């Protein structure tokens, strides 16, 4: 089960007077259709439920991929915790102990739950899950999702994905042949 972050990972959203505008990361549709083969997908965002739902609707409209309908779970800010960060401020994080819930564990052992996020601090208490991707805020030439799909395909058969050294994955993975 691949757990996906949303903001600055799959999209960049901005609230405007007319509502929320979501810019989608390049190759997002191809990425989702591609990884939905080898992986079950889930969503964990520190955004609000409204924001998450609006963005997922935009993804569906643009790509046809119904991530909201296909996700094993859709976890928003209410599933995150506040913790004190190094600078003394409080910030959201994603307590990976929630992956131990019985209904998850029965199908997805913790060795089989990689989690994609642009903020490593979100998984400070579950670092073995983390695949960190560069934050995206609109650069049109970005190729990280294409690169990531290749990387995810290369590790899906590893028995213990927590033990796989995932730091530096991007520099070891070409974005295309
Ligand atoms: Mg993010």
TrEMBL record:
Classification via SMART domains: CPDc (SM00577)
InterPro entries: FCP1_dom, HAD-like_sf, HAD_sf
Pfam families cross-referenced by the UniProt entry: NIF
Annotated PROSITE patterns: FCP1 (PS50969)
FCP1 homology domain: residues covered: 1-155
Record protein name field: Phosphoprotein phosphatase
